[in-house]
Design a protein that fits this description.
It is a single chain. The protein has 69 residues and is of the alpha+beta class. Helices cover 26% and strands 26% of the residues. The chain has a single domain, classed as 2-Layer Sandwich (Alpha-Beta Plaits), CATH 3.30.70.20. The protein has a 3-stranded antiparallel beta sheet, covered by helices on one side. It has a two-stranded antiparallel ribbon with strand order 2-3. The model has no long low-confidence stretch (mean pLDDT 97).
Length: 69
């Protein structure tokens, strides 16, 4: 099974909700008004697609989805 890590520079989040809008199954807004992932390791093609959309939709490019080596 292929695994992918999701990393985010949380402090740099501007709270635009783009990631939450395109991938609500894995992204949520926290009490500080910034987005955060519900989980940081994904394993399914559906999760990968959704989180890659979140990565590309982020206007400040602070989300990275990378394959676990």
């Amino acid at each position: 099974m292929v695994k992918y890590n999701i990393s985010q520079k949380h402090a740099e989040c501007i709270g635009c909700q783009a990631c939450v809008n395109v991938c609500p199954d894995n992204w949520v807004m926290d009490s500080s008004g910034k987005a955060k992932p519900k989980k940081t390791v994904i394993t399914t093609a559906e999760e990968l697609k959704c989180n890659k959309e979140a990565e590309t939709s982020c206007p400040v490019q602070i989300i990275k989805v990378s394959k676990v080596k």
